[in-house]
Amino acid sequence: MMTTELALLLALSTLWGASYTFIKIGVETIPPLTLVAARTLVAGVLLLAIISWRDLKLPRDRKTWTYFLFQACLNSVLPFTLIAWAERTTDAGLAAILNSTTPIFAFLITALVTRHEALTGRKLFGVSAGLAGTALVIGLGALDTLGQGLWAQLAIVAATICYAGAAVFGRNFRGLDPMMPAAGSLLAGAVILIPISIVIDAPWKLSPSLDSIFALLALAVFSTALAFVIYFRLVQTLGSVGATAQAYLRVPIGVAIGVVFLGETLSSTAGLGLACIMAGVIAMTLPARARVRQAIQSMPPST
User: How many CB atoms lie within 10 A of CB 151?
Assistant: First the structure.
């Protein structure tokens, strides 16, 4: 069971690690708001079609949809828009470091506010080791631009806090098929974003490049629809803090994608950083073994 969850954590890290490249290409010719609105709409409709194909139905009660709407604000509407806007002016390396602090905020929210998980010294070590490893993989030189373009950097930090809150709030969907909160929150996000995009960007007047369109489709199908289904399962099985461990794993994956496809170079400390990240991820997820077994047993048989 634990092997499966760790494999899913790696898959989620890959999907979201690639999203930085997709966003970078997408915003070249598509405004951030329109990119995010289209991303949530395409992903939500795709998941809705799969739910219908599986002969299932989304919940219809008001309480669940209120939760979907709140989750949408935390997990897509605000962070997607903030990151897409910030990536127009912020270096990718620094953005990755700032965005990888999600486990820290999830840890703090859990420790100081909700207290719904046991917070052990092992988890604290995992959070610290993962953050140190992230800085080493990207290269400490990326921090040289910290403070330049302050508003964009603060936007990424705000998005990171939203992701942490979403991981904690996501425990409210325990017992639901992970596809339900994924589809519901994305569709709710699209309802919020599409009217704003129409008013501000007038998307019918845009002339996006083919590269941006393909990047948008990849972002919606793989880094959003598929990723959200995996994410909501991991929140149930690994817990709020454990699920955010992907924020560390996606850094070396994102860097590797940049090396292979964009010709970027690795920092001299990348090997040591990867070792720290792996140690941190293991420390944050292994204590969840009993939770994994219990959560999987409580899931619907089709999950």
Answer: 10
Q: Is the pTM of this model over 0.85?
A: no
In single-letter form, the type of residue at position 301 comes to P
Of the pLDDT bands very low, low, confident and very high (cuts 50, 70, 90), residue 6 is confident
DSSP conformational letter for 302: T
CA distances from 241 to 15, 148, 266, 302 (A): 19, 30, 28, 26
Main-chain dihedrals φ then ψ at residue 217, nearest 5 degrees? -65, -45
Residue 65 contacts residue 59 (beta carbons within 8 Å): yes
Q: Which of 82, 5, 71, 4 is nearest to 245 (CA)?
A: 5
The span from the CA of 124 to the CA of 178, in Å, is 28
Chain centroid to CA 29: 23
Reported as a single tens digit per residue, the pLDDT across 44-76 is 999 999 999 999 899 999 999 999 999 999 999
Nearest to 231 by CA among 279, 280, 300, 183: 183
Mean pLDDT of the chain: 81
